[in-house]
What we know:
Number of strands: 2
Order of helices and strands: HHHHHHHHHHEEHH
Structural class: mainly alpha
Radius of gyration: 22 Å
Distance between the termini: 26 Å
Largest sheet: 2 strands, antiparallel
Strand order of the largest sheet: 1-2
Amino acid sequence: MSFFGSGRGLALPPVVKNIIIINVVVFAATWLTSDVMGTDFMWRHFALFSVKSPLFEPHQIITHIFMHANFAHIFFNMFGVFMFGRILEQLWGSRKMMIFYTVTGLGAALIHLTVNYFQMSQLMKMASEFNNTPGYTLFHEIVTKYGSRTGQYDQIMSFMQQWFYKPDDPSFITAGKNYVAEIIYGNLNIPTVGASGAVFGLLIAFAMMFPDVELMLIFLPIPIKAKYFVPFYALLELFFGVAGFRWDNVAHFAHLGGALFGFLLVKWWKRNQFRIY
């Protein structure tokens, strides 16, 4: 688009530049402490945990936005900040961009924690019922819904298969209770990191401001207008979030949270477009 110009379009405005710098610095610190020094300090204190987890600390709602799991994770998130954030900051100004990025990042965390709270409440309710009246049927339901989030998944599946052939054998109950406790621990203490929610907010805002600009996925090089691409992407996130596939470790509801807060904030700004930020 000639609106942005080649020189201006490639320049990094201050908020976007600082976001990228902070994320890179935090990523380097995480790598240094975990891979070089062998400590989980960064993960333990700055990743986001379930509010029902003993590892949860309020400041994690902010700090987890600047942490990333691996190089690919930070690369694609910062690429999104670079591609969409710089254009929006040039359009809105730095103050407005900072407000937007913060609101969408916190909104993503809020939606993620809310969904997780109800999921963990359901898990703990089922676990309580199982401990009071243990049986194969309820154990199978717990494992099916929540068992994939533990490191002992294959072992639990093998145990469940053995119990299947002897559902009335009381000798399985003690081990079953231990596995349920392991499932609770594994689900409560999953760390969430990344700026993906805020980046999804930027993507939504870009589509709202420039609906006819064509976007392309790296693995699907077909140009699609932003006004079609973004809703499709959001529906895809919703599908994977609800499906909860075992191999999927992405916080899809955080993405949707960032999208929701981004959408609402842009709509509100459009209604109050003559206010100064």
